[in-house]
Amino acid sequence: MSEHAAQTRAREVLHSMRQVHRSMNTLMRMQADQLGVTPVQMLVMRALEEEPNLSLGELSERVALGCSTVSGVVKRLVESGLVHRDRLDEDQRTVAIRLTDAGQQLVAEAYGDESLLSRALLRFVELPPEDVTALLNLNAELIRILDPEAQGTPRVSTAGTPIDDGTCR
Prior knowledge:
The chain is mainly alpha-helical. The chain has 7 helices and 2 strands, in the order ααααββααα.
């Protein structure tokens, strides 16, 4: 394959990925709007539903967002009564974050069988299992290829300052 043809093919792949990303964002935004939260808040609450009592660092890693971003999201969720922060008895410096009853109810609405997200994503079961497996494998490979940290390249802003690596200090 010529270099021009390879570049054209790569652009087609990236365009396709942007379309999938945009469609998922639209679904998340629509679902979040119905529930009065943001898509990121839904993502954080889903992670807490799957694994309660996470520290801020663990939660940040789990949702693949920077610690400062997750800290702000958690603060707003606490103010909304959807999550609660508890200091651990064994280490008063560490805070465990968990859903409140209202947060659990919201997650059930956001991801339950009748939710907009679930109805859309359940259409994946119509795909042959081997196609889903191939898609997941290709996605993992693309992440590996495109992840700057996997290539030893630190992430920096346009100003040249390091981008929050997600670690909580």
